[in-house]
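Lecture notes, part 5. Sequence design as translation. It can be helpful to think of inverse folding as translation between two languages: the language of shapes and the language of residues. The source text, in structure tokens, appears below.
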């Protein structure tokens, strides 16, 4: 085989994606979206292709802990980021608290949007804990601290994720339960740390 045939073409890039804690070397067309790289090159099909226009949230993943719609993110622009897909949110056999809450409270029907909903909910809980306001937050002054995570807050913060089956009531309850459980776990850990 001619060595020149192995050289990257001017329309392709060699890159390394760090997905769910593993590094993957790929050669992709410059125009390949992160969604297509995950699904077609890495066989991580948990991230769903919905509208392919950034409007439904089915392809939501976490980039360095922040949510992003993978259909609008170029794979080449994600190099150097820590990418977490639905396949990487559980810890071994133990489900992430958001996954468990979706399971406990039927936060899904057909399940197509569920991976994106779960990734988005994980980020929502972190954003809320960090004190980020939303469009419905009443008091946005720094002195107010994090707003209460009410159903209205959850609905607003999750509004970029559509569920065509209409499981919204259960999704809001699942996010609320997971946030409460994570806050309680954080308080227990802080108490144990102070006691040590």
């Amino acid at each position: 085989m001619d060595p020149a045939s192995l050289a990257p073409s001017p329309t392709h890039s060699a890159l390394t994606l760090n997905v769910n804690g593993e590094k993957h070397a790929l050669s992709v067309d410059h125009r390949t979206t992160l969604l297509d790289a995950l699904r077609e090159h890495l066989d991580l099909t948990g991230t769903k292709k919905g509208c392919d226009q950034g409007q439904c949230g089915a392809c939501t993943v976490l980039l360095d802990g922040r949510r992003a719609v993978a259909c609008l993110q170029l794979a080449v622009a994600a190099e150097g980021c820590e990418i977490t897909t639905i396949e990487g949110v559980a810890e071994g056999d133990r489900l992430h608290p958001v996954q468990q809450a979706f399971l406990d409270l039927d936060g899904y029907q057909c399940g197509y949007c569920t991976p994106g909903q779960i990734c988005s909910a994980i980020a929502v809980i972190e954003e809320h804990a960090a004190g980020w306001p939303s469009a419905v937050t009443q008091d946005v002054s720094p002195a107010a601290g994090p707003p209460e995570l009410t159903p209205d807050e959850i609905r607003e913060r999750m509004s970029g994720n559509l569920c065509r089956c209409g499981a919204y009531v259960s999704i809001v309850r699942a996010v609320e339960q997971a946030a409460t459980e994570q806050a309680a776990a954080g308080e227990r850990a802080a108490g144990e740390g102070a006691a040590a």
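The translated text above is only one of many valid answers, since several sequences can fold into similar shapes. The longest strand covers residues 12-19.
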